[in-house]
Design a protein that fits this description.
257 residues; alpha+beta; Penicillin V Acylase, Chain A; 5 helices; 18% helix
Length: 257
């Protein structure tokens, strides 16, 4: 998952509105969004190599999402799957802070992890081990520890803010999906030096990445309403941005005390 844009308690009707693109090699086997048969109530795509997830929701109101920290020099091919952090949280009954106390973050390659429930939203990265409980507002995560060097975060947050101004829910959702299709790249001087060649850095600066071998694999919306209604909508993409499928779920969240 390379771009997550979200509004936390910033809309009167939706405690959470989230739009995200997952970028990955097209030959890495993955299952699209579905309810996991071995974890009833958990809805997510699934990495069929590591067994984890990049973004998911549980009917009990818990949700999680992950972006990788891009730094080839620090990558350890033997490190455990980062996707397990998402899946294990959604399977557990831990509050976000307690869950973070239990994981071996140092064993993993770099990541940003978003953990939420019906009460709070936490963001954590294992590069400088920063943990922050987020206040109401609009946010974005890419492949660094902040937005510096990733201008698609700022442009995406601005587009998300414009989408939230729309009065009709269907129009808002359509606008959120559309902002995930932004293929504009950004000027070289704005980009991070993350250890890849500048031509690669430039291509990866787009919100939506089109490519024959690597690119945006899925675009996902997660909309949680004050009425406990939940929409999860995911479009899957193949190489050269060919749409492969779409899955949409309307759920009712289990209320907790």
């Amino acid at each position: 998952m390379c771009l997550i844009l979200f509004a936390w308690r910033a809309h009167a009707a939706y405690p959470l509105l989230l739009a995200a693109n997952r970028d990955e090699y097209f030959n890495r086997a993955a299952a699209p969004l579905h309810e996991w048969p071995d974890a009833p109530g958990l809805f997510a795509g699934r990495d069929l190599i590591g067994g984890g997830a990049w973004l998911g929701f549980h009917r009990n109101g818990r949700f999680a999402a992950l972006t990788n920290y891009r730094d080839p020099a620090r990558f350890n091919a033997q490190a455990p799957s980062r996707g397990a952090l998402v899946a294990d949280y959604l399977r557990s009954d831990c509050e976000p802070q307690r869950y973070l106390q239990q994981i071996d973050a140092a064993a993993c390659n770099g990541f940003n992890l978003l953990l939420g429930d019906q009460r709070r939203l936490i963001v954590y990265n294992n590069i400088n081990h920063q943990q922050q409980e987020l206040q109401p507002g609009l946010y974005g995560l890419a492949n660094g520890i902040d937005a510096a060097g990733f201008p698609k975060v700022d442009s995406g947050v601005a587009a998300l803010g414009a989408a939230l101004e729309l009065k009709d829910a269907a129009a808002m959702e359509a606008a959120m999906l559309q902002l995930l299709r932004d293929e504009r790249t950004h000027a070289d001087h704005l980009l991070a030096a993350s250890g890849v060649p500048i031509e690669v850095e430039r291509r990866l600066s787009a919100a939506f990445i089109r490519g024959p071998e690597y690119g945006s694999r899925c675009s996902t919306l997660l909309c949680i309403g004050v009425d406990a209604g939940v929409v999860i909508d995911e479009i899957t993409w193949g190489s050269a941005a060919a749409q492969q499928g779409r899955r949409r779920y309307r759920l009712t969240m289990q209320q907790t005390r």
